[in-house]
Every structure is written in structure tokens, then in C-alpha cells.
Amino acid sequence: MFTETITVNEPEQLGNIQVPKRASYIRVIMLELSCIASNLLWLGPFMADIGAQTPFFYIFRERELIYDLFEAATKRVKGVGVVDVKEVINWGLSRPMLRASGIQWDLQRVEGIGVVDVKEVINWGLSGPVLRASRIQWDLLKVDNYECYEEFQWEVQWQKEGDSLARYLVRIGEMIESIKIIQQALEGLPGGPYENLEICCFDRGKEPEWNEFEYQFTSKKSSPSFELPKQELYV
């Protein structure tokens, strides 16, 4: 989701386009879900590497919930699909952190391992959790303030040791902060117009022209290499 944000933010700034507050809040929710998904992608193999194989499978199961939300909210024309983000956050995404934080005997194996000091972090151009786990309290979301992150209460997660355990703690803390941001965005989400998609299916307008954006979604023709049975749709 962050690559899409860069794609739309730059033209908006160049053209001085004012984004509705509702859209900005929705973007923040999607961005933080993307952050959680990325950290879970790291957390699963990390747990397996230190000998905790079972959490690996549960973490990836919970990660799929985020992609289910992405599929429901996107890939459509005109607006964002309504999804129950709060239920997934409260029920699904809190469990991986609980499992990962409850196995202290495994985490002792990574304490003092893979230490990267401040000098190495700067010389190698490292960023993200690796940077913040080595005494550098810096986060682009705090510095740049793009979208509406300045309206939410959250803290930059950082550690001093620079080892594998410190990087683990930073990522776990970032997922917790992401959940806090999402909960605040859901509570303060501004109202806006919406439409009944079921009615739109029956009240269909004119057929789009070949050079219109909606043409690729609604005017797909079947392949000439085979015939479809009657009363069946091409997907």
C-alpha cells in the first residue's frame, strides 16, 4: 500500500489537490494494515528460526486476514468497499503478538546476537526497525507528517542494544502502535456519501466506451478460441 501512496501523494502535492479528510483516514488505516502485514511476514520466519515452529503457522493465518480486508476494500471502481476492520483488529491481530511475547526461553537465544551499532547503521544506510533498534529514534511518519498521521497519538518504537532481540522488540512495538492508530482512525473517521452496490447492479447505466476507465472492468469479452455455454458469464 505504501507504493500506491507515493504514486498519489506526489501528483496531489504538485497539483495542490485537497484530499477529503475521510479519504486520508482510510489511507492511514490501509497503510497501517500494510505495516502489520509486513511485520508479520518477518515475525513468522523469525519465530521458526529460534525454534518456535507452531507460531509460524498461526502468524501467517492471521496475516491472511489483512489481505482479505484488502481484497474486500479494493479492486473495484468508484470508492472503497466497506469492511469490518475493527473485528479483525480486536480479534485476529492481537493473538500473534500475545503468542510471540509469551516464549521468553526462545527469545533468550537472540539476545546479543547480530549486533549492529550506530556507526554501522549509518554507514550501511540501514532504515526502518533495524535503524530504530540501534539507538536512533527516527521515523519518517513523524518527520514527514504525510496524510494525517499528526492527528493520531502514537510513539516511535526504538531500542538501544542493536541486536536481534532489539529488532524483535521494535517490530512488536510497531505492530501495537499500528493497531492504536487504526483504532483512533476508525473512531474519528469522518462521515461521507455512500451508495448501495446492489441497487447499482440493477440500475446499470450506458455501456462504457472502449477508451473509458470502466471499460476494462465491465466490457470484458470472451476469448474467440472457445465458446461459452448459454446463460453463463465470462470471468
From TrEMBL:
<keyword id="KW-1278">Translocase</keyword>
<dbReference type="GO" id="GO:0051287">
    <property type="term" value="F:NAD binding"/>
</dbReference>
<comment type="similarity">
    <text>Belongs to the complex I 49 kDa subunit family.</text>
</comment>
<dbReference type="InterPro" id="IPR001135">
    <property type="entry name" value="NADH_Q_OxRdtase_suD"/>
</dbReference>
<dbReference type="GO" id="GO:0016651">
    <property type="term" value="F:oxidoreductase activity, acting on NAD(P)H"/>
</dbReference>
<dbReference type="GO" id="GO:0048038">
    <property type="term" value="F:quinone binding"/>
</dbReference>
<feature type="domain" description="NADH-quinone oxidoreductase subunit D">
    <location>
        <begin position="108"/>
        <end position="234"/>
    </location>
</feature>
<dbReference type="InterPro" id="IPR022885">
    <property type="entry name" value="NDH1_su_D/H"/>
</dbReference>
<dbReference type="InterPro" id="IPR029014">
    <property type="entry name" value="NiFe-Hase_large"/>
</dbReference>
<protein>
    <submittedName>
        <fullName>NADH dehydrogenase I subunit 7</fullName>
    </submittedName>
</protein>
<keyword id="KW-0520">NAD</keyword>
<dbReference type="GO" id="GO:0009535">
    <property type="term" value="C:chloroplast thylakoid membrane"/>
</dbReference>
<dbReference type="Pfam" id="PF00346">
    <property type="entry name" value="Complex1_49kDa"/>
</dbReference>
